[in-house]
UniProtKB/TrEMBL annotation:
Its cofactor is pyridoxal 5'-phosphate. It comes from Geosporobacter subterraneus DSM 17957. InterPro entries: Aminotransferase_I/II_large, HTH_trans_reg/aminotransferase, PyrdxlP-dep_Trfase, PyrdxlP-dep_Trfase_major, PyrdxlP-dep_Trfase_small, Tscrpt_reg_HTH_GntR, WH-like_DNA-bd_sf, WH_DNA-bd_sf. Keywords: Aminotransferase, DNA-binding, Pyridoxal phosphate, Transcription, Transcription regulation, Transferase. PANTHER family: HTH-TYPE TRANSCRIPTIONAL REGULATORY PROTEIN GABR. In the C-terminal section; belongs to the class-I pyridoxal-phosphate-dependent aminotransferase family. CDD domains: AAT_like, WHTH_GntR. Gene3D superfamilies: Aspartate Aminotransferase, domain 1, Type I PLP-dependent aspartate aminotransferase-like (Major domain), Winged helix-like DNA-binding domain superfamily/Winged helix DNA-binding domain. One of its GO terms (molecular function) is DNA-binding transcription factor activity. Residues 15-83 form the HTH gntR-type domain. Homodimer. This is Transcriptional regulator, GntR family.
Length: 497
């Protein structure tokens, strides 16, 4: 409390008293002498200490609240929040994890040997890529545009492609304009430029728990304070979300509302609406990562938040990696009007522009309508794999006491053992039998061991699925038994008598 008594306010200064008080408290918060979640003194008490009117303190607190340094709890008072520290002030106090992120990203890249069955990779195998169509389109572009195809492209994206993306989006119920489209070199870059544009060290970002590894790494690399909220089968727990928003007043929340990675869960329509209402009420951006809404095998709920976004709060990211080819390094953002200048600056600083050659070829791909044929093809391929996978999980895995919620679309299946088990250990045992899974620890901010794991159908052929899952079930059985035996053996004493 001593630091409040030391605050000196000068009535002779040209600056209003409440601004001086605001500055003094703000500096204590930035320097950490007044800590996050600490309660500020009651208004009357501080006014007495500083010999000023109550109104001076009220106005200083209001300004601190407007700037995000404090928040009010109804009936309890005013408390210090965690954001937003100006960059220069916060950079010293926030660790920028570099090595940790690199290893996280690297661990996301799994080396697959030929004899392995990989339920780990969520990337389609190259035999599914529309290579022949692309060869024709690339030649067409080269004949038509010659050297222009190799010049720097507009940072926002090749204009004709942005126009075709507007038409493409219309098919998915999203009405937008070419001015609101930002072409990106893959969704991962999209997350990165959004983080660069909106996040300073110490700013709070809300993520789902578990979530996409690449998003964790990006937000960590910006020094964000990440709050993760457990996702349920029908989306985030809205009450928990609102409590966190109320407390931290974040700038951004990052979600995958359809066929979430890694769980495969989709938000109910009602939860989608409620998240949008919260964005309106608390004025934050929702980053919607739509890496896969296209693959809804039974036409279940897969509406995008962006198509429901009446108030322009959603930054929509579309990846083409899962439905076309990851090596194109192509995706796009649909931006709220106000977000555009910051995002454009971040994109320019990142790589100036996405490959002009690829943008031109992809533009023709969309204009010729060939994409529809390909998506239909991918849907059929994946639906077949999905159905086999669903059946064999029920046959071999569920009887082992494992829980599972069928995702009805997408590429990922999320399976959970009893809470006492470790899927890091299960991963190690499965690898020895040439089965690859992804342990849940990879999808959490703290990388803590988890009892859940992800299986994906992107890179397994139909004929591999049943033998692969049967072999995995044997590993799981062995693992559970070994744990149970260990338990039985511990704590047993033989009397010496
Ligand atoms: C949820 C999610 N977002 C983004 C990406 C990255 O996509 P891109 O290849 O378009 O950069 C992935 C890749 O797996 C993903 O799963």
């Amino acid at each position: 409390m001593g630091y409040y008594e030391e605050i000196k306010l000068s009535k002779k200064s040209e600056q209003h008293l409440y601004v001086q008080l605001y500055d003094a408290i703000k500096n204590h918060i930035i320097q950490g002498t007044i800590k996050a979640d600490e309660k500020l003194p009651p208004i009357r008490q501080l006014a007495e200490i500083l010999c000023v009117n109550n109104a001076t303190v009220v106005k200083a607190y209001e300004l601190l609240e407007q700037e995000g340094y404090v928040y009010k709890r109804v009936g309890s008072g005013t408390f210090v929040s965690l954001k937003p520290y100006p960059l220069s002030a916060a950079i010293e106090s926030v660790r920028l994890p570099v090595d940790e992120d690199l290893s996280l990203m690297n661990r996301g890249q799994i080396q697959i040997q030929e004899h392995m069955v990989s339920f780990a990779s969520a990337t389609p195998t190259p035999d599914l890529f529309p290579v022949d169509d692309f060869q024709i389109l690339l030649n067409e572009v080269l004949n038509r545009d010659k050297g222009n195809a190799f010049g720097y492209q507009e940072s926002q994206g090749y204009f004709p492609l942005r126009e075709s993306l507007v038409a493409y989006m219309r098919q998915y119920g999203i009405e937008t304009k070419s001015e609101n489209i930002q072409v990106i070199s893959g969704a991962q870059q999209g997350i990165d430029v959004i983080a660069k544009a909106f996040i300073n060290p110490g700013d709070v970002v809300i993520l789902e728990k578990p979530t996409y590894t690449g998003a964790i790494a990006t937000f960590k690399s910006r020094g964000a304070k990440i709050i993760d909220i457990p996702i349920r089968e029908d989306g985030l727990d809205i009450e928990a979300l609102e409590a966190v928003i109320e407390k931290y007043r974040p700038n951004l929340i990052y979600l995958m509302p359809n066929f979430q990675n890694p769980t495969g869960y989709s938000y109910s329509r009602e939860k989608k609406q409620r998240v949008l209402s919260l964005a309106q009420q608390y004025s934050f951006h929702i980053v919607e990562d739509d890496y896969l809404s296209d693959l809804s095998f039974y036409h279940t709920e897969n509406t995008t938040l962006k198509s429901m976004d009446q108030q322009d709060h959603v930054i929509y990211i579309k990846s083409f990696s899962k439905i076309f080819m990851p090596g194109l390094r192509l995706g796009f953002l649909v931006l709220p009007e106000k977000a555009y200048p910051r995002i454009l600056a971040a994109k320019h600083a990142s790589d100036i522009s996405t490959s002009g050659l690829i943008q031109r070829a992809f533009d023709l791909y969309l204009r010729n309508g060939i994409w529809k044929k390909h998506i239909h093809y991918m849907e059929n391929i994946y639906k077949e794999r999905y159905e086999i996978m669903d059946q064999v999980i029920r046959k071999y895995i569920l009887p082992l006491g494992i829980t599972y919620h069928p995702p009805l679309g997408g590429l990922n299946f999320w399976l959970c053992l009893n809470e006492k088990f470790s899927t890091n250990q299960l991963y190690n045992m499965a690898v020895k039998k040439n089965i690859l899974i992804v342990p849940g620890s990879l999808f959490s901010v703290d990388q803590k061991d988890s009892n859940c794991f992800r299986l994906s159908i992107a890179a397994v052929y139909p004929e591999q699925i049943e033998p692969g899952i049967q072999a995995l079930s044997e590993v799981i059985k062995e693992y559970i038994e070994s744990k149970d035996n260990k338990k039985r053996n511990t704590g047993v004493y033989t009397p010496l008598l």
